[in-house]
Amino acid sequence: MTDAAYLLVHEDREYLLEPGEELGTDLGVLTVPEDVAAGDAVETHLGTVFEARELRGPDLFAHLERTGAPMMPRDVGLVMGLTGVSAGDRVLDAGTGTGILAAHLGRAGADVTSYEVDPSFAEVAQANMRTAGVADRVEVRTGDLTAALDDLAAGDPFDVLTLDTGDAPAVVERAPELLVSGGFVAVYSPFVEGTREAVTAARTAGLTGVETLETIQREMEFSDRGSRPSTAGVGHTGYLVVARVD
Q1: Is 74 a domain residue?
Q2: Looking at the domain assignment, is residue 1 inside a domain?
Q3: Domain holding 215: CATH number?
Q4: Which of 16, 93, 124, 186 is the most buried (most CB within 10 A)?
């Protein structure tokens, strides 16, 4: 991975800073050394000690700059677990957004080409890849993936295709041209209508093992009165379609 930002932690305080960066706080001015490493103690000018920590997966969701609602960690885990993405895989991704999924894929050792139609979103995502330390593995391209399908299909095949876009069905139809034999497609959608269209496209394209899941998670609460699922928050985040090229 390329040089990344670090979390500077003191008790319940967390600041995401890059080597050489300076931040003024009520605990003093925090200056991060250029040669900072995980585990180093960094003092403010008032003597408050912060610990430098490497970013972990959950930290990406908490600290990367957002351009909208990023993919939840549980959904990222499903995509990675059901497609088996691993080091050395080539992944074609669309709907970069904040880049949470792309960053996780890069940190797993995959080489990712991600398309984002909104130039401002793409710019933020590119910066987030640098922060996450995967700018050497994740290439964020500004543009519509559907317009590049012919060129991509003529090149080396990908191992996995991940989509979080409204036009995902049109891309799924081309999956056999884009992926290696045995490659996986994963389509994430917040709406059931788009999910159904993705399933239809997968079947039309002859993909196998088409599976559709609704992602739901409930937090548990434990108290002296008893144990029960939390009534706060939203359990549903979206739908995930996974299929495979023969």
Answers
A1: yes
A2: no
A3: 3.40.50.150
A4: 93
Tell me which amino acid residue 167 is: D
State the CATH number of the domain containing residue 34: 3.10.330.20
User: Which of 11-43 are b and which e, b meaning 16 or more Cβ less than 10 Å from the residue's Cβ?
Assistant: eeeebbbeeebeeeeebeebbbeeebeeeeebe
Write out the two tokens for 85: 């993405």
pLDDT exceeds cutoff 90 at 4:
no
Q: Which residues of 154-171 are buried (b: 16+ CB within 10 A; e: fewer)?
A: eeebbbbbbbbbebbbbb
* Residue whose tokens read 């559907």: 146
According to DSSP, the β-strands at 22-25 and 236-244 are unpaired
Q: What is the pLDDT of residues 93-142, one digit of tens each?
A: 999 999 999 999 999 999 999 999 999 999 999 999 999 999 999 999 99
User: Is residue 124 included in any domain, yes or no?
Assistant: yes
- Six-digit token pair at 194? 């788009």
Query: Mind listing the pLDDT tens digit for each residue in 45-89?
Result: 999 999 999 999 899 999 999 998 889 999 999 999 999 999 999
**Which residue's entry shows tokens 């605990």?**
27
